Amino acid sequence: MTGKNPLPLVIAFDIYGTVVDPGGIVGALGETFGAQAALAARLWRDKQLEFTFRRALMRRYVDFDRCTAQALGHVSGELGVELSEERTRALLEAYLHLPAYPDAEPALRRLKSAGCRIVALTNGTEKSVRTLLKHAGIDGFFETILSADSIRTFKPDPPVYDLLKRVGASGEKAWLVSGNPFDVIGAKAHGLKAAWVRRDPRRIFDPWEFAPDVVIGNLEELHRAMSPQP
Questions:
Q1: Residue 191, in any domain of the structure
Q2: Model-level pTM greater than 0.70?
Q3: Does 14 participate in catalysis according to the annotation?
Q4: Other C-beta atoms within 10 Å of 228: how many?
Q5: In a domain, 2, yes or no
Q6: Which of 14, 21, 63, 103 is the catalytic position?
Q7: What is the pLDDT of residues 41-70, one digit of tens each?
Q8: Total tally of structural domains belonging to the chain
Q9: In terms of domains, do 195 and 219 share one?
């Protein structure tokens, strides 16, 4: 914290599942997967993350875009829906235009007005994340994009959280904001403050020795949650 600003100096936002909604791909999947579109979207996201975890553990890196493509191939096979090359390209392109959550823009605007430095800390490639944020109309709120691709690994590998040192932030001087429990746990294990965005009240946090500093239902609650209580 600095000067009159009681909020954290640097707030690092996860992107997929926090700022932009992977579930927004359902519409694009409908043409191919029909009634299974919502299931396909959930499976695609689950496999995408699973593949990044495996890659980081095995030290067999391919970038997030490649993991996303391979996960789509898995969905196609598991649900028994054959995808042409053209359709595969179209779906991967659609993934670059996921919608932002409705609460993202007003929350980012308020934090920016309060003097916070806002950065993206993401598994996504810088190019893809820049495209996402621009399409969503919120790229101007982000000072920079810190991509795990620059060090060829994925969250929650500890070196990813060290990327915050590039903007002069570490430890309790920086907060991570994420809708993904594994990401919050990774940040907390690395000594950062962390906020978990729990949009679905039915979700539970992993019963580990690490817990979020604050739990919020949407990003618009973030400013108040981070402010010191009287």
A1: yes
A2: yes
A3: yes
A4: 7
A5: no
A6: 14
A7: 999 999 999 999 999 999 999 999 999 999
A8: 2
A9: yes
